[in-house]
Amino acid sequence: MNAFISQLSFISSITDIDQLQKYTSDSSGFTSALPAIVLRPASTEEVAACIKACVAHQKNYTIQGGLTGLAGGACPDEGDVVISLERMNQIEEIDTVGGTAIVQAGVVLEQLQQAVLEQGWYFPLDLGARGSCQIGGNIATNAGGNKVFRYGTTRELVLGLEVVLPDGTVLNMLNRVIKNNTGLDLKHLFIGTEGRYGVITRACVRLFPKPAAVYSALAALKSFADVTVLLKEARASMAELSSFEVMWDNYLKTAAQVANKAIPFDGQYPIYVLLEAEGAAEGLDTKLTTFLEQQLESGLLQDVIIPQSEEQAKGLWHIRDASGETLRIMKHFVAFDIGIPLKHMQEFIEKTEQALQAKYPHAMNLFFGHLGDGNLHLLTGKLTEEELLPVEDLVYQLTALYGGSITAEHGIGRIKKPFLHYSRSPEQIKLMQKIRELINSDNLLNKARVVE
Amino acid sequence: MNAFISQLSFISSITDIDQLQKYTSDSSGFTSALPAIVLRPASTEEVAACIKACVAHQKNYTIQGGLTGLAGGACPDEGDVVISLERMNQIEEIDTVGGTAIVQAGVVLEQLQQAVLEQGWYFPLDLGARGSCQIGGNIATNAGGNKVFRYGTTRELVLGLEVVLPDGTVLNMLNRVIKNNTGLDLKHLFIGTEGRYGVITRACVRLFPKPAAVYSALAALKSFADVTVLLKEARASMAELSSFEVMWDNYLKTAAQVANKAIPFDGQYPIYVLLEAEGAAEGLDTKLTTFLEQQLESGLLQDVIIPQSEEQAKGLWHIRDASGETLRIMKHFVAFDIGIPLKHMQEFIEKTEQALQAKYPHAMNLFFGHLGDGNLHLLTGKLTEEELLPVEDLVYQLTALYGGSITAEHGIGRIKKPFLHYSRSPEQIKLMQKIRELINSDNLLNKARVVE
């Protein structure tokens, strides 16, 4: 390790055990281990130098961003070299004509959101960890969030990337144009692959004109079938629709209680939808209100709350966003993040709840999700530690049965690696491995994540 | 060849020379050659059998769809085996709850558009060749069209694929959910890669609710800078904006003349924008009209035509779509399809026009394009045959200088293969080749396209 350190003496590094603690784990609760050293390169060239040194000394290395991941992907093994991108934190360019930005991988999401807003533009990726997650990590995990429905996942927001390959080659693919059909679009090798094929150092992202107005409403419905009808009607009626979040009754009640909020409706309904529309100021509130009134009159909606202030809207979102707080009273728990085709959703939920209640009658099962995208969250707890793995296996088996995805937005990382086969066929896994062998051939980079 | 044919006797095949003529070329004008045989498999298993036979007999094979490509990708070499997907023409499922469709690769685009419309849904991919292009070819070339601006390219419309690999393995990736973060998204190896890595046999595509209303308008402006301002304003004001097509004055005049239409405005302006908005019926016409009137009052627009009938709107689109007819009077010509960052567009056009006029003063240069996506079309002609290659080289050099893409939607195919290096770095080309060697290792499949 001494020869290794002296080779990289020009790069800001950390070896002090107290300081290293910060780099041992992400937000997933994955069992953490102390790295040997944290390298903090400040440029693409320094990242390449770090990688070349790891190869020369055959050291396993783990890439870290903001450490907010939920799949254990950023957790090092004991003695790993950690390469943290935190010092690559410059927004290099905001193009206010074309609506693009060039950012370094270590830029914190909220910093980018704010910087482009100041220029009259909007970066629509948004998630709870916005204050500490980094754009490089968002891209490596293809982060989702509440607005995927309108703007796409992170993948759709990335025009180009700069990546350092595991052999130290810098791949400059900082494309700035929306349409580029010059053969294999290599950036997709690095988006959502959690650093298994290379290290993202810079990105060119798409911006959108800043929306002048945002309005929300909470609707109560009598069945999931009615929710799918509402979704289609809302999409057809409002191109401005930006979120379509569904909460089943037990989630709403528990989350409201935990968040110290009153339950919004007087009556009780089986299922609720939190809608959001964003766009031009003129007429959007009327448009949303008119639409909801029509759906109420037709009988599709049982009740609806249209907030009369920003404060009241925030209160509704607080309930939706209280899943983190809710989990605190559910330990040990599993927080699922799955994708299920809408037409199978109701049946999947019924079957899953029955199976869980039969085997784990002491646990609560709370359902909610970004249903506009078929993304369902399920919180199951309290469980004993021994019950965690069998509960995961049970839910992922059912997910596979209904043609779903075992992770819609959080990624595979280390935690879901044993379950990958429920979403990907042996032929797919083999091809993923062959490409890993081709590009990350000595398997030093982010070993033991996603796929061998 | 006899042993080869007898092995595949169960598959509908063509060896008659007259009938083979139909399979010699696509719409690109690339020098054509007669294949030895055309195989027309009707199922994924038959496609796999065809591929295995080609491998066993070490025969080069070319995949064909609707033969409407503009880059020569579907043109066989002399004596090639052609595998045509034309008999895989079934729409297998339209999911009216989730808004997805499962289609075989040989389904004609217009057939899919119509079938989903009848179920109240909308497939927004649209291009001139809709009546004969096939969805497999659309995906393999990542087709663009007029509505990319709102709905994305074909890539964004594909949720999942089924592909047969060059070793005969069937890769079933018919994912139906929007969010699926289970590691490397393998479908991107096959989208826009023009059949170099596998043969697309089936796809799951995204549908949108059928828009109730579509409105267009033609605006006249005084500069390209004003066009970029209009684009941002229009995006911010109308989430319904679905097309933003720009025509420079010389294109508008020439195309109107060729299409036998009157020039729409009394005055003459340097540049025009054809806008289209689609969405809910209620209020959309007023919204578009109000927006345009405001831009007229502010002085951004010099004049505007808001069609009073569908007929009149079609007339405006006819001029925009008359590029094919315009080319007929320009032979020999080069029809460019490039991507340029918006902030460099005006300078790129000026420099390119100057350079072309200096060297080829006898040729016309007509500019237009899907400017909402930074996609510029340029028609240059009449040229002599000898001038074609140097003209391409000149324009692609300038494209590279401004960080553009040498093909925004048509693809590389055979025709643009010599120019790939203008848009892709040596490191990128090397990685594309290494992946080609990994997956299409004996290089029998679609040889001599895109990349070695």
Automatic annotation (TrEMBL), chains A, B:
The protein's name is FAD-binding oxidoreductase
Q: Which InterPro entries match?
A: FAD-bd_oxidored_4_C, FAD-bd_PCMH, FAD-bd_PCMH-like_sf, FAD-bd_PCMH_sub1, FAD-bd_PCMH_sub2, FAD-linked_Oxase-like_C, FAD-oxidored/transferase_4, Oxid_FAD_bind_N
What this protein needs as a cofactor is: FAD
Which PROSITE patterns does the protein's record reference?
FAD_PCMH (PS51387)
| Gene Ontology molecular-function annotations | FAD binding; oxidoreductase activity
User: Which family is this protein grouped under?
Assistant: Belongs to the FAD-binding oxidoreductase/transferase type 4 family.
**Record has Ribosomal protein as a keyword:** no
Note the superkingdom of the native organism. Bacteria
Q: What is an annotated GO biological process for this record, any one?
A: respiratory electron transport chain
Source organism of the structure: Pelistega suis
Protein keywords: FAD, Flavoprotein, Oxidoreductase
The chain positions of domain FAD-binding PCMH-type read: 31-210
